[in-house]
TrEMBL record:
Its main location: cytoplasm. GO terms for biological process: L-histidine biosynthetic process; L-tryptophan biosynthetic process. It holds the Pfam family His_biosynth. The active site is at 10 (proton acceptor), 135 (proton donor). The gene is hisA. It catalyses: 1-(5-phospho-beta-D-ribosyl)-5-[(5-phospho-beta-D-ribosylamino)methylideneamino]imidazole-4-carboxamide = 5-[(5-phospho-1-deoxy-D-ribulos-1-ylimino)methylamino]-1-(5-phospho-beta-D-ribosyl)imidazole-4-carboxamide. The lineage of its organism: Archaea, Methanobacteriati, Methanobacteriota, Stenosarchaea group, Methanomicrobia. One of its GO terms (molecular function) is 1-(5-phosphoribosyl)-5-[(5-phosphoribosylamino)methylideneamino]imidazole-4-carboxamide isomerase activity. PANTHER family: 1-(5-PHOSPHORIBOSYL)-5-[(5-PHOSPHORIBOSYLAMINO)METHYLIDENEAMINO] IMIDAZOLE-4-CARBOXAMIDE ISOMERASE. Pathway: Amino-acid biosynthesis; L-histidine biosynthesis; L-histidine from 5-phospho-alpha-D-ribose 1-diphosphate: step 4/9. Signal peptide: none annotated. One of its GO terms (cellular component) is cytoplasm. This is 1-(5-phosphoribosyl)-5-[(5-phosphoribosylamino)methylideneamino] imidazole-4-carboxamide isomerase.
């Protein structure tokens, strides 16, 4: 993977939203049309989109599946890669998305509760199609829409899922997520250095400098949400900054 900036399209209640640290009701952005939001990022240069069904992440059932399907269909002819997470709890859930044409399914809670799911999906669809989300708070993994904390660390789980066939990891630092107060590159670099598969970073990006900091960790890319939606910087500026870094 070449380091890239990946816009987030988080969906809740049929809208495109940005939450503070994933807390329901903390919306700092709420747009009525997620499909148009996604296509706008594509028009501005996005090569990959990060779609999350927040209702699915919290409730375990993919509530925004129809919207995601519309986005995938709209982007198919544009050559845009799409990664999807949130509420994917079974092999059937993941398989239906991959058969729809997305590039990567992102497994969080399901992977941690049923690690063999990662192995099965990797065997059937190829490791490149499987990303495991490692969301961490205070250095420990969180699951179920960040409502439950586990005892394992991202490094421990990263090594485990690499062995099981995950093709990449998505690391979100909940301590900085949605606050737009800057990134902490240390945990991202620790994870990058502990595995041999790509790590995509997420959480806390608030400036173009943050993108440069994360690129230097060796991460393969960064998911950006609030900073883009609130105009801290444009996607075009972000792409240009990374290109010259």
């Amino acid at each position: 993977m070449v380091f890239e900036v990946i816009p987030a399209v988080d969906m809740k209640g049929g809208k495109c939203v940005q939450l503070v640290q994933g807390v329901p009701g903390s919306e700092i952005v709420s747009l009525d049309d997620p499909v148009e939001a996604a296509l706008d990022w594509v028009r501005k240069g996005a090569k990959t989109l990060h779609l999350v069904d927040l209702d699915g992440a919290i409730e375990g059932e993919r509530k925004n599946a129809r919207i995601i399907e519309k986005i995938v269909n709209a982007c198919r002819e544009k050559g845009v890669r799409i990664q999807v997470g949130g509420g994917i709890r079974s092999f059937e859930d993941a398989a239906s998305l991959l058969e729809l044409g997305i590039s990567r399914v992102i497994l969080g809670t399901a992977a941690l509760q049923n690690p063999e799911l990662v192995k099965r999906l990797s065997n059937v669809f190829g490791c490149e199609s499987v990303t495991v989300a490692l969301d961490a708070k205070n250095g420990k993994i969180s699951i179920k829409g960040w409502t439950e904390e586990c005892s394992q660390t991202p490094v421990e789980m990263g090594k485990k899922f690499e062995e099981l066939g995950a093709g990449s990891l998505l690391f979100t630092n909940i301590d900085t997520e949605g606050l737009m107060q800057g990134v902490n590159p240390v945990p991202t670099k620790e994870l990058v250095d502990s595995v041999n598969i790509p790590v995509i970073a997420s959480g806390g990006v608030s400036s173009l400098q943050d993108l440069q900091v994360l690129k230097k960790t060796g991460a393969a890319g960064v998911v950006v949400g609030s900073a883009l939606y609130t105009g801290r910087f444009t996607l075009e500026a972000a792409i240009e900054t990374i290109r010259h870094e």
